Each structure stands twice: as C-alpha cells, then as structure tokens.
UniProtKB/TrEMBL annotation:
Protein name per Swiss-Prot or TrEMBL: DsbA family dithiol-disulfide isomerase
Domain DSBA-like thioredoxin: 3-207
Record field: compositional bias (Gly residues): 228-237
Region (Disordered): 215-248
A Pfam family of this chain: DSBA
Origin species: Corynebacterium freneyi
Gene3D superfamilies associated with the record: Glutaredoxin
Superkingdom as given in the UniProt entry: Bacteria
Keywords: Isomerase
SUPFAM superfamilies xrefs: Thioredoxin-like
Amino acid sequence: MRIDIWSDVVCPFCWIGKRHLEKALQGFRAEHPDAEVEVLWRAFQLDPNAEAESSETIPEMIARKYGMPLEAAVESQDQMAATFASVGLEFNWRDARSGNTFDAHRLAAMASDHDLDDEADEALKKAYFTDGRLVSDHGVLREIGESIGLSGDAVDGMLASDEYALDVRHDMTMAQGLGISGVPFFVFDGKFAVNGAQPVDVFRQALDTAWAESGKGVTTTDATASDGGAGDGGGAEGPDCTDGSCST
C-alpha cells in the first residue's frame, strides 16, 4: 500500500495529521504485520509567492489577513499550541519565523533520494514550529540536512542550483490535477483520500479500506476527498488554517 501525502512545512495541521496517521498505522500494522506500507511525501506551497522572510509575527499576519483584533489572533495561536501539546508536539508560535518554503521542499526531495523522507519532514517541521528557525535560510537548511545524515556540502550545492525544483513543481502540478487546494491531503493507494487532520479512526478506516481494495489498479487521478476536515483545536497560520486543514 502507498500513501501519498501533500504537505507544507508551515502548515500546523500537517504535523497534527501526521501524528494521527502514525497512530492509525500502529494499530493497522499490529493487525497486518506482513503489510508493506510506503509513505511518499509530496510538496505543496500554501503561499508560493511568500517572501524569503516575513517581518510580521504570526498573530500580526493573521490579524491583517482576517481583519481581527490582534488579541484574537494571539488566542488562536494559544489554541493551536494546546492542540500540538495534545499529540506530543510543541508549537512556539512567538518564535516562529515565516518565509517561503520552496527550498525547504527541495531539501525534502533531496532527502527522499537517500530514503530520509520522514526524517526530513520531522526536522523541517520541528525547525519551524518548535525551534523558531527560518526554513528559507540556506544556512538553516544545511544544518537540517546534516542533522538527518546528508552532506552539508551536497546540500549547499543543491541549494545553489535549481536541482529538485522540477520535483517540487511536479508535486504541486499533481495537486492541481487532483483539485487539492488545502493540506494535509492523504491519498491511499491512489483511490481513497482523506482531507485534513482527521481523527485517528478516520485514518484507520482509510487504511482498512485501501488494504481490502488493494490490487484493483486504480490510479491517483481517481482520488476523491472525504467531506471536510475535523481536526482537533482551532487557530490559524498565515494561510487559512481552520477545520483541520490549511488552504491557499
């Protein structure tokens, strides 16, 4: 079974949804120890036109975008931090530094070539949400690459070129073709899709259904989303992040 996951580094529900999926996979693998499950991370940019670094804090960005009082924006981030804590994650929104994620996705694509997909995803999200690091900064990306086992010099060389740019754009073109406008978005065996940070039992149902239907030759172009997101907690990131997913 293969699970394609469209995700952006700065999408809070993407990390929450990942934790929900991981918990569902634990139960699934316990019941199906011989099942092989491949997880393929795919790039998605919530704001492809974002500057390399924003001068705004997250609450300031939210207050401006949605026309809400700054106090309400701050409260939304406290709620998101509480949701993170409920799944064992830490969101230090006061330290978060927003920027363009294209090069972060290129680093993730490079990591994928070395079978370090999950390590890259975890390191990038932790850098942004927990450590307050700027994931558009090439020095930061070099350090992240080295922390997961990549050569720092190789990362520098990749970032100085346009290497893996086509891979990132390919993933985003696939997302357009599937009608994906928000993340996280999970496609199970090219047929069954889950949109947003759904509860664990929804992911388990998708796993069981895909496993039962495996081998019928359906492709990713046939994927259809479930009805809406039902993530835990509220709050918003720079893009529209409500109801369990972030949209462009």
